[in-house]
Amino acid sequence: MTREKMGNILVWILIIGFGAWGMPGIIDRFTNGHINTAYGSYIPWGLWISSYIWLIGLSAGALMISVMTYVFDIQAVKKVGKMAFLVAIATLVGAMISVGLDLGHPLRAFNLILDPNLHSMMGWMAILYTAYFITLCVELYLAIKKEQAQGAKQKSIKKILIVLGIWSIPLAFAFHGGVGGVFANVIAKPFWHGPMLPVVFLAGAFLSGGALFATVAYIWRPNQSQEEFSKMMIFLGKTTLALLILDEILEISEVYIGTFYAAFGEGHIWQEILFGPYWFTFWVVHILIGVLIPLFLLTVKSKSPGAIALAGLLIAGSFLAVRLNIVIPGMIDPGFQGIAEAWVHSKLTFSYLPSTMEWQVLFFIVAVVMAVFMIGKKLLPIYQVAGEE
Q1: Measured distance CA(314)–CA(294) in Å, rounded
Q2: 382 with 75: CB under 8 angstroms?
Q3: Would you give per-residue pLDDT tens digits along the chain (389 residues)?
Q4: Domain 14-379: which CATH class?
């Protein structure tokens, strides 16, 4: 059995399993609203906002691969451009579902598009997401048509793809940097407020999305020789390693500056992240699984496609913990003493641990993302390359 067939079987098993386990959570969400979630008035954003940022980052990182293909014409990833578009679209769909379910009334999201407030970062996010989704769909369509066309028509489509690819670079910086801007603009939350957060969001997006694509390309490799396949995986491994080092430099700077005065400003929040009750989220899930093990695989096993794919999977999967450690800690500071004791209620607390229902919804969303990718891969000529049957 080939690696692709094994991957197809495994992913469909995961889709069915995640979907079945997650369906009760989806039913609960539409039946009872937010009653069975663990967040409340003091911590209004939880697992679903974190997963939205995680998935939108994966999408932006996958877009980076398509830009390498159609704008910079990097030969190592020449045959996986259309697959990169499909990964970007699938993860974008998941991100929109996640943030939509977090809203009290999901259909109100259309108000941001129909009547945007141009003085609001969220208003601009609605415009940018719409432009991003349309751009991805058009680029995927043209990439498919390019492989089916010949002669002058193919050259014409290629030029359009280059223009769209160049346009998508500032668009990716704008929409995902804008996600960081939504948080960074909240001056009442010192842990978020600052000019570096949009940059951190972008670096993490390119890292996690590029890492995920290394795994996808390994399992569903295009029609290429073993030498081409090895070159592609080694290139993806080197790219992921460079982005991992960059992301860790930014994170070390954040931790060092944030903890320099542990008792003031955001220092006590960093103490909670590093040594609080959920310390394992940072040290085990993020640092061990998402940084140290991948760093070992990408350096010591740098020419092994399997090791590169495993490193990519570990980075992409564990990056949800990074997003949780951005979203939740920023809201645990009461702001002024006594508010936590002034009123006592399950929805009035400064601690947060996702409920079972929240996890069920997330797993269902992941199942949808995988299903969109698998169905798209089945129905669209993702593997077709000009000159090949």
Answers
A1: 7
A2: no
A3: 688 888 899 999 999 999 999 999 999 999 999 999 988 888 888 999 999 999 999 999 999 998 888 888 888 888 888 999 999 999 999 999 999 899 877 777 777 777 778 888 888 888 888 899 999 999 999 988 888 778 788 889 889 999 998 998 888 888 888 888 888 888 888 888 888 888 999 999 999 999 999 999 999 987 778 888 899 999 999 999 999 999 999 999 988 888 877 666 677 888 889 988 889 999 999 999 999 999 999 999 989 999 999 999 999 999 999 999 999 988 887 777 777 677 777 777 888 889 999 999 999 999 999 999 999 999 988 875 544 44
A4: mainly alpha
Spell out a b/e string for 231-267, using b for 16 or more CB atoms within 10 Å of the CB, else e.
ebbbbbbebbbebbeebeeebeebeeebbeeeeeebb
d(C-alpha 366, C-alpha 343), whole Å: 37
At 116, which amino acid appears? P
Angle (CA) 116-110-163 rounded to 5° is: 70
Angle at 329 between CA 324 and CA 333, to 5 degrees: 160
Write out the two tokens for 133: 């989704």
| C-alpha closest to that of 90 among 316, 373, 342 | 373
Evaluate whether 327 touches 49 at the Cβ level (below 8 Å).
yes
Are 186 and 91 in contact, with CB atoms under 8 Å apart?
no
User: CB–CB of 309/218 below 8 Å?
Assistant: yes
